[in-house]
Design brief:
The chain is mainly beta. The protein is 9% helix and 24% strand. It contains three helices and 31 strands. The protein has a four-stranded antiparallel β-sheet with strand order 4-3-6-7, with no helix packed on it. A hairpin with a 4-residue loop joins strand 8 and strand 9. The chain is flat, with a radius of gyration of 48 Å. The termini are far apart.
Length: 648
């Protein structure tokens, strides 16, 4: 009989003793039949626990002869088979129920929160106590919290917190990352607020962070380090100055050392944005006058090493700017302006990575390799990364990509591995237009009549490959050749092949069709050793015309015709007319596969052979007709003589 678990009336944990983790679960349910009638009597009920995936069984037990009254029953899970140590109820479990060995009822029940965790007093906890792990008993139990006996007293060993006679509170722990930490929450919160109320003329400090001679390690020391994430606007360190002169944030590296950041190299400003939506360095100028303004001004001179006027480093997800400059207003404004000179290697701007430009790119000057600085040979030198420009590029000289000595207006060199049909190429062009007759690449050569190539391609495998991937039901062309105008001879597509064992000026893998005429060159001026054919009929009578079907399933990439075909077998024809059999070769299933060699038939010359066979046959017929007429004349003569003889 099929049963249904109509409702779970009670689901609670029961402890063996008050102070230990419970090991039994009191479970009460209500059973009905498929027709909705309540179940009464004694039945065997099996319970199974499944892990969070709902697929793996982790515990089961069967309660025999469970009394059921009006559909209601009550059992203690874990009383027949104790829960193993692995079932610690630290993750989501699901309970399955079946009756009298039948199919498990669906859906399984999802275990809820543990009721015993809602009342710690039942575990014997006293006022101010906390739960502590007892390793000897392998369980949690209440206990008093431990505090350092030296709290608010002066001690010489860490950790300690103490107040001295100078109204100072000090926190010290040599083994922790933070000696003192305060966390704030709310719409506007301040974790630590420093405000100097001194009204004198001396130095006043709101918050002083000092990392001096005490640290003796080789790590990184920060006087003040700020980190802010998760808000609409975040400031790692924010400085606001109300007077003039003043510094929002002022950093000094000590006597004879650079300001801002002190590292293995000298940096005027070092900005690092490692989280989405932040700026390592943000420089913004909105002037109203006509003077010179700088969002960020970085200036490094001298030395024989590598100097950076501004170094920006941005990493992480989202949009990050190592250096971001915005300039607007009248006059001449620079969002970012870099000036570097002196001995050594100096760059006014150096980018180690991708560069994205949405506006115009104007380049003056010369390439360090020695090219001239005039308008026709100026250089825009980019190397070591990628260049993405959304605006226009104007350059009157030659552009070299992958070469510093371009031999053409645009000269691209490089090494790009991979398959061409997967988009691997030195040059890649993609037109994202979705309609019209636009082109991915358009080549045009304006020259006098009969000269110039719109495009010239040379490859070691394929000179030009055209591919179309249609999805509709129109006309599509892998390669289309079109010539119009003029009064000479026009070739839509011209192919020439020579020098190989097998040469095809045109090869079709599939059907071929034409709307004009297909001619075979047979001009007398191209021919020699012209001789009449003879004895052809006997050879033609040896031919074996057959019907056959192509192995399209085995050679599907050769695009054979389906169904019955009519023709001759090349190997048989070769025994009679070997001149009509040609060796053929078809490319493999995919590029790089070995070619498919085969024998083919040149059916065009067979026309002349069949004509000659018909002529020879006609000669025989005419000879037989003449002989037949002579026989008929003789028969008529004999019949006349016989008739005369009989009449006498």
């Amino acid at each position: 009989m099929r049963y249904f678990l109509a409702a779970v009336l009670l689901f609670a944990f029961v402890g063996v003793v008050a102070a230990e983790v419970p090991h039994l679960i009191s479970f009460q349910g209500r059973l009905t039949t498929a027709g909705g009638d309540t179940v009464t009597g004694n039945h065997d009920i099996t319970f199974k626990l499944y892990d969070a995936s709902g697929l793996s069984e982790i515990w089961s037990e069967t309660h025999h002869d469970v009394p059921i009254v009006a559909g209601l029953y009550n059992v203690m899970l874990g009383s027949e088979t104790p829960f193993p140590a692995a079932v610690d109820f630290s993750e989501q479990y699901y309970l399955g129920v079946s009756v009298d060995g039948g199919t498990e009822m669906t859906p399984r029940y999802e275990l809820g929160a543990s009721p015993y965790a809602l009342n710690l007093q039942s575990m014997g906890a006293g006022d101010g106590q906390v739960l502590k792990w007892n390793a000897a008993l392998s369980r949690w139990q209440p206990g008093n919290d431990s505090t350092n006996a030296g709290l608010w007293t002066d001690h010489t060993s860490a950790p300690y917190i103490y107040a001295n006679n100078n109204d100072e509170v000090k926190v010290y722990d040599a083994g922790e990352m933070f000696a003192f930490q305060v966390n704030g929450s709310g719409g506007t919160s301040v974790s630590i607020h420093g405000n100097s109320l001194n009204s004198g003329s001396g130095e006043k400090v709101g918050v002083l962070g000092y990392c001096g001679s005490l640290p003796s390690g080789s790590g990184t020391n920060y006087g003040v380090k700020g980190s802010a994430t998760g808000g609409t606007t975040n400031y790692g360190v924010y400085g606001d100055v109300g007077g003039n002169p003043g510094y929002g944030v002022y950093g000094t590296g000590g006597a004879g050392k650079p300001y801002g950041y002190l590292g293995g190299q000298n940096c005027g400003v070092y900005g690092n944005a490692g989280t989405s939506g932040f700026y390592g360095v943000l420089g913004r100028v909105t002037p109203t006058g006509s003077s010179w303004y700088y969002g960020v001004d970085g200036w490094v001179t001298g030395g024989t090493g590598i100097n950076y006027g501004v170094l920006g480093d941005a990493e992480g997800d989202g949009i990050n700017y190592g250096v971001y400059g915005a300039a607007s207003g009248s006059g001449t404004n620079y969002g970012v302006y870099g000036d570097a000179y002196g001995s050594g290697t100096n760059w006014a701007g150096y980018f180690d990575g991708d560069v994205h430009i949405t506006g115009d790119l104007t380049v003056d000057g010369s390439y360090p390799g020695g090219r001239g600085a005039d308008a026709d040979s100026g250089w825009a030198a980019v190397g070591g990364g990628e260049l993405a420009i959304a605006g226009d590029i104007y350059h009157t000289g030659s552009i070299g990509i992958g070469t510093v000595y371009p031999e053409h207006k645009l000269h691209v060199e490089g090494t790009e591995g991979g398959n061409a049909w997967d988009g691997h190429a030195i040059g890649y062009f993609k037109n994202n237009v979705t309609g019209g007759y636009a082109a991915g690449v358009y080549g045009e050569c304006d020259s006098m009549d009969q000269y110039g190539y719109g495009g010239y391609f040379k490859g070691g495998y394929t000179g030009v490959k055209g591919e179309a991937s249609p999805t509709g039901g129109n006309l599509y062309f892998g390669v289309s050749g079109y010539v119009h105008g003029g009064s000479g001879a026009n070739f839509g597509v011209y192919g020439s092949a020579s020098g190989g064992t097998t040469n095809y000026s045109l090869y079709c893998s599939g059907d071929g069709g034409y709307t004009g005429s297909w001619s075979h060159v047979s001009d007398r001026r191209f021919e020699k050793n012209i001789k009449p054919m003879s004895g052809i009929l006997n050879k033609v009578m040896l031919l074996n015309p057959v019907t056959y079907e192509m192995r399209t399933d085995e050679y599907d990439f050769m695009n054979f015709n389906e169904g019955r075909q009519y023709g001759l077998i090349a190997q048989e024809l070769e025994q009679i007319f070997p001149e009509l059999v040609r060796p053929g070769v078809h490319p493999g299933a995919k590029e790089g596969d070995p070619p498919i060699e085969y024998k083919g038939i040149d059916y065009i010359p067979l026309t002349a052979i069949l004509i000659k066979a018909v002529q020879e046959q006609q000669g025989i017929i005419e000879q037989l007709n003449a002989e037949n007429e002579a026989l008929n004349a003789r028969i008529e003569t004999i019949e006349a003589q016989v008739s005369k003889y009989l009449s006498e």
